[in-house]
């Protein structure tokens, strides 16, 4: 089943609106607003630079991290029933709706990442020490001596 094409602008607009509504009553600490709005700013960067894999990857990573931080904010700062007014219910409802919508947004942003030429695996730039070099061919010498001794040969005995 093919999902309809959703614009990155629409994703950012919806999450911006839900974050503004979630911040209406100052129920959450400033870290909720800073975290969500800074990720949305990275999303604007991904809109501006359409060919940048880094921008869309950072936006996707930020969305995934805000899922975790939103769960923590909602669970820790949810007010008791005697402090819930209608405006606070609306505000917390929009924060929860934004949280529920983020996995769908992450999937759509990941599809955009793949459309821009991203790989299926995430590369964070860490190289391994023991990389396989069997496909390496030296271009300066045709019959270069092997750099490492053959493990199948026995070592020469010292005198």
Structural description of this entry:
- The chain is an all-alpha fold and 159 residues long.
- It is built from four helices and no strands.
- The mean pLDDT is 84.
Compact summary:
The chain is 56% helix and 0% strand.
N- to C-terminal distance: 73 Å
Q: How can the largest sheet be summarized?
A: none
* Percent helix: 55-70%
Give the assembly state of these chains: single chain
> Outline, from the CA principal axes?
elongated
Write the element-wise H/E pattern from the N-terminal end onward.
Answer: HHHH
Poorly predicted ranges: none
Radius of gyration: 25 Å
Structural class: mainly alpha
Overall pLDDT level: 84
Taken as a percent bin, the fraction of beta residues is: under 5%
Please tally the β strands and state the result.
0
């Amino acid at each position: 089943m093919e999902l309809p094409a959703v614009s990155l602008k629409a994703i950012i607009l919806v999450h911006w609106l839900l974050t503004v509504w979630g911040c209406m009553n100052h129920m959450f600490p400033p870290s909720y607003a800073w975290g969500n709005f800074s990720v949305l700013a990275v999303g604007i960067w991904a809109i501006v630079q359409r060919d940048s894999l880094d921008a869309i990857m950072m936006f996707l990573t930020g969305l995934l991290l805000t899922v975790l931080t939103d769960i923590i904010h909602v669970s820790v700062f949810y007010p008791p029933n005697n402090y819930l007014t209608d405006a606070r219910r609306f505000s917390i409802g929009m924060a929860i709706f934004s949280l529920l919508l983020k996995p769908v947004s992450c999937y759509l942003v990941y599809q955009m990442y793949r459309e821009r030429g991203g790989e299926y695996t995430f590369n964070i730039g860490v190289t391994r020490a023991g990389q396989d070099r069997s496909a390496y061919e030296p271009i300066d010498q045709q019959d270069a001596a092997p750099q490492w001794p053959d493990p199948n040969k026995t070592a020469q005995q010292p005198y």
